[in-house]
Design a protein that fits this description.
By secondary structure, the protein is of the alpha+beta class. It folds into two domains: about 1-210, no CATH class; about 220-420, no CATH class. The chain has seven helices and 19 strands. The chain has helices at about 55-65, 145-160, 190-195, 265-280, 295-300, 375-385, 415-420, and strands spanning about 1-10, 25-30, 35-40, 90-100, 105-110, 125-130, 135-145, 175-185, 210, 220-225, 235-240, 250, 255, 260, 315-320, 320, 325-335, 350-365, 405. Strands 10, 11, 12, 15, 17, 18 and 19 form a seven-stranded mixed β-sheet that branches. A five-stranded antiparallel β-sheet has the order 4-7-1-8-9, with helices on both faces. Strands 2-3-6-5 form a four-stranded mixed β-sheet, with no helix packed on it. Strand 11 and strand 12 (about 250) form a beta hairpin. Helix 4 (about 265-280) crosses helix 6 (about 375-385). The radius of gyration is 25 Å and the shape is globular. Bound molecules: zinc ion. Zinc ion binds near residues 286, 291, 296 and 302.
Length: about 425
Amino acid sequence: MRSTLFTVRLRLATAGGVSAPEDLRTETLTSPDGEVRVRNTRPLRRDPTGAPHLPGTTIAGSLRAHCTTIPALRDAFGPAPGAETRTASPIQVLGSITRTTTPPQHRGRTAIDRHRAAARTHTLHWNETLVAGTEFDIFLRWDDATEEQLTALDAALGHWNPRLGAGASLGAGRAQVIALGHRSYDLRSEAGLTDWLAITGPADYPAPHPLTPEPPPAPLLQRTLRIVEALHIGTGTTRPADGGGDGEIADIVTRNGTPIVPGSTLKGVLRSRVEYICRVLGAPACEHADCGHCRPCLLFGHGAPDENGTPGRARIAIGDAEIRHARREQRRHVAIDRFTGGARNQLLYTHDVITTGEFDLVIDHLGEHEPDPTDLALLTAALDDLHDGLIGLGARTTAGYGTVELTHPGPSPARTDLSALLPPGTP
Ligand SMILES: [Zn+2]
């Protein structure tokens, strides 16, 4: 018998990690003026020592999907989920270790989302995430593989660009293989068996050799947008007014001090507009993003349709966009709108806004299948509506806030072309 061990070193290109929803923490926070908010924090999955952990099932699932079209590796990670016959996976995921010294960070998901007319602003959603640059070593074992199979696996691992954990459609958890090593042990020979038995832990696994990471695939769509009118994308939190003045200042979402447009905001606005366009053209678009078969559900992902249904992953990923050359100002208004999360009579409210700046909207294609031209046409049409000021980003769009425009508006599909792509009644 011959056993082969692989060591795969992965590096996170974007913050991410596999979370443990069953360990959700809920805290109640009270602001200085007595407003009560609930904060839900979804922690990372951890091993028994408390270190952030990448579960073997996550790794195997991602590798199975990646290798499914390679003949020498078909079924090497076991049958696809839902297959009729269950067989053991020839390749075993022995485990993984997280090589990191940077503590995980907490990221708030913006409280203002596509349903912002509904009162969601009193709940803050936080995710504990590993920072970009975090590395993992993953260990695989394959017994009695042929040379052809080992060569195919080595090549496939070098091209593996997984998105691990939740939030893939928001650009989270994008990873690249940066080093790879493998060694075969002939267990029928005394030398091979002696070396095999000397393996006591990860330090004895094959040392990975650096490789040049694959450049990420070209985005499906990339456009630069310029801020035309004050943009406020709130964190849902406030801070006391500067210099002890009245009221509070609503914070904006930043990363390392740079204002950002969160991927969740961009995705929410585009989804809501794509749903609208579908309805106008007579194509199905469900109300609650959970039917699982209308075009917006397939494109942007969906929740579970019912107790027995499974949520579906999006076909696209939209990451956070950093705002360049941002000019930050404060605007005051009387706080009697939903922006504040409730009526607060006569209270002067101040919020941070970005008045000028630009950012890149990058939409990546996910999955093994070719992008669907209808998806691209719908996204382009939604972006045109954003450019035309029919929709805006962030808070107070009805007051003209959050207007943005494309720096290089391009040709776009006419509505008549779209309606040909989307015959009534088809998803
Ligand atoms: Zn749907």
